[in-house]
Specification:
It comes from Paenibacillus apii. Helices cover 43% and strands 14% of the residues. It is of the alpha/beta class. The chain folds into three domains: 74 residues, Winged helix-like DNA-binding domain superfamily/Winged helix DNA-binding domain (Arc Repressor Mutant, subunit A, Orthogonal Bundle), CATH 1.10.10; 122 residues, Alpha-Beta Complex (Aspartate Aminotransferase, domain 1); 238 residues, Type I PLP-dependent aspartate aminotransferase-like (Major domain) (Aspartate Aminotransferase, domain 2, 3-Layer(aba) Sandwich). The chain is elongated.
């Protein structure tokens, strides 16, 4: 079947799945469909014959083609799900046997601590291991400056609500940004200001003005493999950012949640650019290990330690000893480094494949951050005339799950019409099939819209 025929077939199939053509309803005539899709009568005849072979439609002599009954359609329209939404690791990629061994060992080694309330800042032995891990990223805290949290979400929640030594109260965030940070800020009822981040970076003039005039307590940023954009700051950007922060006494909360996936050995975090006095360096372990362990770690400036200790203790008394023990054993045994290396290779291969397929199937103007390298996420920019919710629903009906980024913007900030794509639970076949379906649905919008812009390269 040619690409043109397959595209037309999938569009009609999608219309049936979405209920635009009801069971028992007559399909448009062969002539009308040939005019609609700008193709020959023979092409439509072959498309209808193929749909008939799939038992989705049937013909009545001298009457045309009709959709079969709903009960017969359901199993035929069900498809394998292609998950471009998930931000959690594929269970198949996690060495669960290794974790069970570490859990059993943790029960043995930390038995006495399980029956007490340990240091709310985290087990000292684990913090010492975290220091070694951070040093690999050119971040050099003392163990006293390291905090262990019950997931990065807890860290963000506490930092959003606690006072900072600069005495300022407002918080600046990139737009778009991680939805969990926006949720934490909303629950804390903080005054939040947004600043646009594009594939080209950030508006430095606006950033400096905000730093100088808006009483910014801290600036929350994801400099590496941004969520949802997938882009990273350059070395020059990081240097400039820390200089502005120190000059204006603004703290930076650096969410380096994908440091383990970096393929460029020279890509250091902001903290490494002489930022120890004004950077809270935050690392999560959810993307490489089990999210259910609920663990994250941060290196904080000395000036923040007393206040953060009090707020952490008030929040949960202490982070799970068992989870901390599992992570410590996993790191000390070398399992963590080995597994992180495997995950880096796996995810890097997938994101490269997504980029190659997307560049082949989609027009350039819609490849918002497809050109970026590494990480887990990339994004597609849709024109304003496309109703994102409708497109997401159509893709869902065809077995493709995508993530609209509306909740990654502040309510008051102008939203971009973006779809975020994740490769965490896809393989090469999923990526190729999923992007083909996305391209076909975009083509369908072109057919039904007055816009002349091309979406799909046939």
């Amino acid at each position: 079947m040619t690409n043109k025929m397959e595209s037309i077939q999938q569009i009609i199939r999608s219309e049936i799945a979405n209920g635009l053509i009801k069971p028992g309803q007559k399909l448009a005539s062969i002539r009308k469909q040939s005019e609609r899709f700008d193709c020959s009568l023979n092409t439509i005849i072959r498309v209808y014959q193929e749909l008939e072979r799939q038992y989705l439609i049937y013909s009545r002599p001298k009457s045309g083609y009709f959709v079969v009954a709903k009960e017969a359609l359901l199993p035929l329209l069900q498809t394998k799900r292609i998950d471009f939404t998930s931000a959690a690791p594929d269970p198949a990629s996690i060495p669960q046997t290794d974790f069970r061994q570490c859990l059993n060992k943790a029960m043995e080694l930390f038995e006495s601590s399980i029956f007490t309330y340990p240091d709310p800042q985290g087990l000292l032995s684990l913090r010492q291991e975290i220091v070694k891990l951070f040093q690999q990223q050119q971040v050099f805290p003392s163990a006293q400056q390291v905090f262990i949290f019950s997931g990065a979400q807890q860290a963000l929640h506490l930092l959003a609500g606690m006072p900072f030594p600069n005495g300022k109260t407002n918080i600046l965030v990139e737009q778009p940004t991680y939805w969990g940070m926006l949720a934490a800020l909303k629950t804390q009822r903080q005054t939040v200001i947004g600043i646009e981040r594009t594939p080209d970076g950030i508006d430095w003039v606006t950033l400096e003005r905000y730093f100088q005039s808006n009483m910014i307590k801290f600036f929350y940023t994801i400099p590496r493999f941004h969520n949802p954009l997938g882009t990273s700051y350059t070395a020059e950007d990081k240097q400039r950012l820390i200089e502005l922060a120190k000059a204006n006494d603004v703290y930076i909360v650096e969410d380096d949640y994908l440091a383990d996936l970096e393929t460029n050995s020279k890509a250091d975090p902001i903290h490494a650019y002489n930022g120890a006095s004004h950077v809270i360096y935050l690392r999560s372990f959810s993307k490489v290990m089990l999210p259910g362990l609920r663990l994250a770690a941060a290196a904080v400036p000395t000036s923040l330690i007393p206040s953060l200790q009090w707020h952490k203790h008030a929040a949960d008394l202490s982070t799970s000893v068992l989870s901390q023990g599992v992570l410590e054993i996993y790191m000390k045994s070398g399992m963590y480094a080995h597994h992180a290396k495997q995950m880096k290779s796996l995810y890097n291969h997938r994101i490269k494949h997504l980029r190659e397929i997307s560049q082949r199937l989609l027009s350039k103007e819609y490849l918002y951050t497809i050109h970026s390298c590494g990480g887990l996420f990339t994004s597609i920019h849709l024109p304003d005339f496309i109703h994102t919710e409708d497109l997401v629903k159509r893709l869902e009906n065809r077995g493709v799950d995508v993530f609209a980024t509306d909740n990654q913007f502040l309510p008051s900030f102008p939203k971009l019409n973006l779809l975020r794509l994740s490769i965490m639970r896809t393989d090469e076949q999923d990526i190729e099939e999923g992007m083909r379906i996305i391209a076909e649905e975009l083509e369908r919008v072109q057919y039904t819209s007055s816009s002349p812009k091309p979406f799909f390269r046939l």
